[in-house]
Amino acid sequence: MSIFNLISLEQKQQIEYFIELILKWNSKVNLVGFKNREDILNYLISDSLFLADFFKKSLVFKSKKLTFIDLGAGAGLPGIPFRIIHKAGDYYLVEIRKKRAIFLKNVIFKLQLSNTYVLEELAQNLFEYHYSADIIIARAFKPYLQVLKIAYPLLKKRKGRVVILANKPKPKKLPSNWQLETVYSYQIEEKSRYFWSFKPNI
Ligand SMILES: C[S@@+](CC[C@H](N)C(=O)[O-])C[C@H]1O[C@@H](n2cnc3c(N)ncnc32)[C@H](O)[C@@H]1O
Predict the structure, then answer these.
(1) Labelling 124: which of 3, 147, 164, 171 has CA 20 to 30 A away?
(2) pLDDT tens-digit map of 41-94
(3) Ligand 1 pocket: which of 82, 95, 98, 137 to mutate (most atoms within 8 A of CB)
(4) Where along this sequence does the record place binding of S-adenosyl-L-methionine (predicted)?
């Protein structure tokens, strides 16, 4: 069964509108490498749907009032399609490039995504600006060890989790202040992909 069968007609329409906006803006702002709807859907958006499924099934994430920080959001992946499905809590998309941040603000406005915000900041500065979160998400942002380093102070107070979208079943090595709590695996176009969910050792 396709992961797209798990979402409502309204969510499918919002995702189609998001793809339309990506394709429209992509001619002027370098957002994504893929140039057609099918590839964007298969290779970029599917991950977000599996991510929503992962959150739905995981006991750790049952609280409705979670705060999410999505590091290096780019064109809004995995954040925007995830947010179309998972509407609870607050969601911060962190993106340092101005044009991409403007695109993200435009998408949030057009799709009327509530409690979803863009931070045009360096991820490394968030702690200094007193941001913190329950869940830090990263897809194609930086090597996982760097993501964990940036995320650690942001999660410390809330005993949260870091979820990294990966192409390998598990990380090679892990710093002593982290443990790998869960690995969720799924397939896209017959290739395996993974969510690594890390818990800080506090
Ligand atoms: C390779 S793209 C991935 C985008 C998206 N997560 C995806 O999976 O398609 C990485 C994004 O992170 C942004 N970025 C890189 N370093 C950053 C930093 N230190 N703080 C905030 N954003 C950063 C880049 O501008 C870029 O849009």
Answers:
(1) 171
(2) 999 999 999 999 999 998 788 877 899 999 999 999 999 999 999 999 999 999
(3) 95
(4) 72, 77, 123-124, 139
Q: Give ipTM to 2 decimals.
A: 0.99
Summarize pLDDT for 91-133 with one digit per residue, the tens.
999 999 999 999 999 999 999 999 999 999 999 999 999 999 9
CA distances from 102 to 14, 18, 38, 95 (A): 19, 14, 25, 10
The answer to whether the CB of 96 is under 6 A from ligand 1 is yes
Question: Would you say the CB of residue 201 lies under 6 angstroms from ligand 1?
Answer: no
Pairing of strands 116-119, 161-166: unpaired
Find out whether 131 and 65 touch, Cβ atoms under 8 Å.
Answer: no
Q: Which CATH number fits domain 3-200: 3.90.930.12, 3.30.470.20, 3.40.50.150, 3.90.215.10?
A: 3.40.50.150
Cα–Cα distance for residue pair 135/121, rounded to 1 Å: 18
Pure H helices in the chain: 9-26, 37-39, 46-57, 79-85, 98-111, 144-155
